[in-house]
């Protein structure tokens, strides 16, 4: 999956979402609240094999196809977040992230899918259960919830992707050292793009800013949205290796 102001501190407590220390950034609270889930993500077989280069090519192709479908939906959610942003700076960031998802990131996927490095498509790709559920959740949240809740919902795709990507990229570099012609290891190294980490930092700051002026109830909703989206991150990666076919 993809993504592409100083950070404010949200004090007080988030009703039903755990205590937030007055010196703690709200996004640090979100990260702490999802620690167990993220540990499960770090231990996923799909990600281990993606990093060490042992993921079967047909599985990698399916993952790329699903990720391309996801990018289209994610861009729509980001555009909705941009439309409800409270100021031009925030709006410009989210709009730029939406544009990047549909142009730069999608182009990289399409180039690899169209290359000889991967087996040809067996069928026309359709959304998996996890992919459809994830993009539907993000778009619905961005369309019906407050800006603060919507921003929290789209943050995991930035932040968890970057956190996982830093480790995967280091592993992929080792794969390339052994096999410079590995079909997808070089693509995996792009997970650790410095520009993307800068975007994560900005996205976090914008969520912190939103939390700083939110009510306790809204911060609780932000925590719930971040957690739900993080669960979908897990499901998206897990079903790439362990698919759950649609009923006939």
UniProtKB/TrEMBL annotation:
Pathway in which this enzyme or protein is active: Cofactor biosynthesis; thiamine diphosphate biosynthesis
Thiaminase-2/PQQC domain sequence ranges: 45-241
Give the span(s) annotated as Disordered: 1-21
Bias (Low complexity) occurs at 1-18
Judging by the UniProt lineage, the source's domain of life is Bacteria
Q: Which GO terms describe its cellular component?
A: cytosol
Q: What PANTHER family would the database entry show?
A: BIFUNCTIONAL TH2 PROTEIN (PTHR43198), SI:CH1073-67J19.1-RELATED (PTHR43198:SF2)
Name the record gives this protein: Thiaminase (Transcriptional activator TenA)
**Native organism taxonomy:** Bacteria, Bacillati, Actinomycetota, Actinomycetes, Mycobacteriales
């Amino acid at each position: 999956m993809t993504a592409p102001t100083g950070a404010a501190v949200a004090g007080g407590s988030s009703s039903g979402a755990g205590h937030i220390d007055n010196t703690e950034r709200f996004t640090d609270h979100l990260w702490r609240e999802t620690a167990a889930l993220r540990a499960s993500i770090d231990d996923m077989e799909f990600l281990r094999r993606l990093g060490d280069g042992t993921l079967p090519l047909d599985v990698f192709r399916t993952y790329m196809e699903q990720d391309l479908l996801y990018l289209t939906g994610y861009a729509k959610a980001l555009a909705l977040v941009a439309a409800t942003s409270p100021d031009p700076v925030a709006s410009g960031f989210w709009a730029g992230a939406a544009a990047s998802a549909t142009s730069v990131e999608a182009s990289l996927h399409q180039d690899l899918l169209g290359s000889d490095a991967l087996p040809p498509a067996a069928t026309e790709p359709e959304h998996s259960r996890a992919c459809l559920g994830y993009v539907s959740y993000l778009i619905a949240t961005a369309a019906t919830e407050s800006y603060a809740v919507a921003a929290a919902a789209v943050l995991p795709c930035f932040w968890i992707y970057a956190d996982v990507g830093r480790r995967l990229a280091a592993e992929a570099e080792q794969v390339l050292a052994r096999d410079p012609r590995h079909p997808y290891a070089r693509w995996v190294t792009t997970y650790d793009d410095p520009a993307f980490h800068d975007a994560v930092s900005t996205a976090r700051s914008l969520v912190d800013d939103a939390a700083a002026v939110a009510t306790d109830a809204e911060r609780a909703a932000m925590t719930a949205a971040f957690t739900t989206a993080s669960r979908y991150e897990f499901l998206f990666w897990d079903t790439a290796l362990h698919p759950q076919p649609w009923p006939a």
